């Protein structure tokens, strides 16, 4: 439980900080298209930081369900690959980096599927 609470808090903090940086630090320095791309990364990072909090509380309640831990790691991998690739894409404008983003999206989807399965099966 503690690990996913910490990871959720770190990612929520980073989402707020990166959101502010994108809105104020990058304004006028990169094209508007990439500001929007940056914001997409921030939005998905924050949603999945919340998902990490949900995982943390469920792990405490269902400590013998390893699928929850797997879902939490998938959310973290998704944040790194999806949001991370969008951040790097935004500041470098190297379009090939966009090929990494769907892998993060797949990790997010797999994590939500596992979380839904756990809810159906164990709650």
From TrEMBL:
The chain crosses the membrane at residues 41-59, 71-90, 96-120. The keyword Transmembrane applies. It comes from the Bacteria. The keyword Mitochondrion does not apply. GO terms for cellular component: plasma membrane. It is a multi-pass membrane protein. InterPro entries: DUF423 (IPR006696). Signal peptide: none annotated. It is found in: Membrane. Its main location: membrane. Keywords: Membrane, Transmembrane, Transmembrane helix. Belongs to the UPF0382 family. This is DUF423 domain-containing protein. It comes from Metabacillus litoralis.
């Amino acid at each position: 439980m503690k690990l996913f609470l910490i990871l959720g808090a770190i990612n929520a903090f980073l989402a707020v900080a990166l959101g502010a940086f994108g809105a104020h630090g990058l304004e006028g320095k990169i094209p508007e298209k990439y500001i929007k791309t940056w914001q997409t990364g921030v939005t998905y990072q924050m949603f999945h930081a919340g998902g990490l909090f949900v995982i943390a509380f469920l792990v405490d309640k269902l400590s013998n369900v390893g699928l929850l831990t797997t879902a939490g790691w998938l959310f973290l991998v998704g944040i790194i690959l999806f949001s991370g690739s969008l951040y790097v894409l935004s500041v470098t404008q190297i379009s090939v980096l966009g090929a990494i983003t769907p892998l993060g999206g797949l990790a997010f989807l797999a994590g939500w599927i596992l979380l839904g399965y756990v809810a159906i099966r164990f709650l």
